[in-house]
């Protein structure tokens, strides 16, 4: 009987050890005074547009716009991504990229003028489109085939606003 107790104990320890092996990739807090976008080097604000990638080796890359995060994925691939996060536009809570719903419209003002904002679910995204009277709701899968064009007029407007404010960016 004692032999079975030892085997049972070893089995329980083995199951617990295996369950502890799963990696958990958590987003880091945005530190506005030091965080800059990994693509455009602009300051990352702690707001609804901030996004983040945590690689499998634990490195965090922060972005000021979901379009910049997409550019990073294009340049670096997705094989080493442990988890990617976007912010819910309404609550500013971190949500997994693949679980989010997105709204795109060229007229939406985002930090790098990609015109894509994220929501925790499709219902929130649809409500935003209804309220704004413009936009198209996209899933993460649909966003993968999005053309990712920046609104050049909006970019020029951003640039002039920053220059008139006297701000300097890296």
Automatic annotation (TrEMBL):
This is Nitrous oxide reductase accessory protein NosL. The lineage of its organism: Bacteria, Bacillati, Bacillota, Bacilli, Bacillales. PROSITE patterns: PROKAR_LIPOPROTEIN. InterPro entries: N2O_reductase_NosL (IPR008719).
């Amino acid at each position: 009987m004692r032999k079975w107790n030892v085997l049972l104990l070893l089995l329980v320890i083995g199951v617990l050890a295996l369950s502890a092996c799963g990696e958990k990739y958590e987003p880091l807090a945005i530190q506005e005074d030091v965080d800059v976008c990994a693509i455009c080097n602009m300051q990352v604000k702690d707001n609804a547009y901030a996004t983040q990638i945590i690689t499998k080796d634990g490195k965090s890359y922060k972005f000021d716009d979901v379009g910049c995060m997409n550019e990073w994925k294009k340049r670096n691939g997705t094989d080493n991504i442990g988890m990617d996060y976007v912010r819910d536009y309404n609550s500013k809570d971190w949500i997994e990229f693949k679980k989010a719903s997105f709204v795109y419209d060229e007229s939406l003002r985002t930090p790098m003028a990609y015109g894509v904002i994220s929501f925790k679910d499709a219902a929130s995204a649809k409500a935003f489109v209804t309220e704004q009277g413009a936009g198209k709701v996209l899933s993460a899968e649909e966003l993968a085939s999005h053309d990712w064009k920046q609104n050049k007029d909006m970019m020029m407007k951003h640039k002039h606003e920053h220059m008139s404010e006297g701000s300097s960016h890296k």
